[in-house]
Amino acid sequence: METQNKSFPKHFFWGAATSAHQVEGNNHNDWTEWEKLGRVAHGEHSGLASGHYDRYREDFAIAKELGHTMHRLSIEWSRIEPRPGIFDQQAIAHYRDVLLELRRLGIEPMVTLWHFTNPIWVQQLGGWTNKQTIDLYGRYVSTIVRELGDLVTYWITVNEPTVYSSSSYLFSYWPPERKNPITAWSVIRNFVAAHRLGYQIIHRHNPNAKVGVANNLNHFIPARRNNYLDRTLATFSRYWHNQWWLDQTYLTQDFIGLNYYFYHPLRFKISGLQNLLRPEPQDRAPMSDLGWEIHPHGLGELFDFLKKYDRPIIVTENGLADAADQFRAAFIRDHVAEIEKALQRGVRIQGYLHWSLIDNFEWREGFAPRFGLIAIDYATLQRTIRPSAYTYRDIIRQRSA
Ligand code: FCB
After folding, report:
1. CA of 112 to the centre of ligand 1 (A)
2. Pick the CATH number of 2-400 from 1.20.1200.10, 3.30.1490.20, 3.20.20.80, 1.10.10.10
3. How confident is the model at residue 2 (pLDDT cuts 50, 70, 90)?
4. How high is the pLDDT of residue 144?
């Protein structure tokens, strides 16, 4: 591939990501039902979220101004198919407009087909515990691909299925708050099948499509380097969290989507599974507003781990909650530097998408965490570009010069 600036390929994609439920507003799905139970921080509801459903043009215009060349968004299944087998033409037309707007601006869309939310009727049938959901998902994907496939090359079948299975069915942290390893296991198996089905459906429609998964990969290390139990725990976590899913699915991933947030030093404790997996704070690295430590080199380590799958990689999410915007500029610079080093080592990386373009509803944590390159004033829905977004723009310019 032709290269510029020593290491970045000419067609390297730069941009940011969002997901429907977190930004659109006025959704009606299994999450909105769960939000009514008061489980979200400060009893918040996603409500109008970031108002992106109506303001996507304004948001994309800013993305363009900031030099973005790719944008990752998700389609909300509950809008498309509010009742079983009934597809809402207005919702489909809306997403057509969204995709056309990105194309008009010269921004390549990346479309996620499932990002943590289900139509209420799917959840009532048992959601992802029910094998039937695989076929229901397939029918929804077929509709989207038929209606919108002419505008999309890059697809994500499912976002972070391993995180969802454990948060919703093992740790009881997200809806539907189950705590059953056997159920969690059947959920992740159903996602494997759904991903493969989605991959086939998309490729039947367009053999040149690029289909992947947004995989949440963590960099796990033993907290005490020479401790056998810590090392075993790190090995087990790497296998279970990073490798198992990829082993099942990499043959049906045209590219590997990598969501990178966590570097976990693990210390073995005999105090229940959740504590066992709780990371130890490490060497005073700077922390995001959510207490997530910032370790850019973990990204480099994960690139090396992924080499064995021999697939191009796109960083589909990477970011931090930072309301004061004190760490974000350096965060982006340092993670991009890891990409640059990996490219020089011969790793095939094709893009970097920052999480997120705009502040949004961070699931159980609600609206307090500020992940956006663009700040949202939730009282007025006014947009303000954060200074770090300009640093990112300058990085993009420099690397594309
Ligand atoms: C990822 C999710 C995304 C967002 C970020 C902070 O795990 O895919 O929706 O919540 O974390």
Report:
1. 13
2. 3.20.20.80
3. very low
4. 98
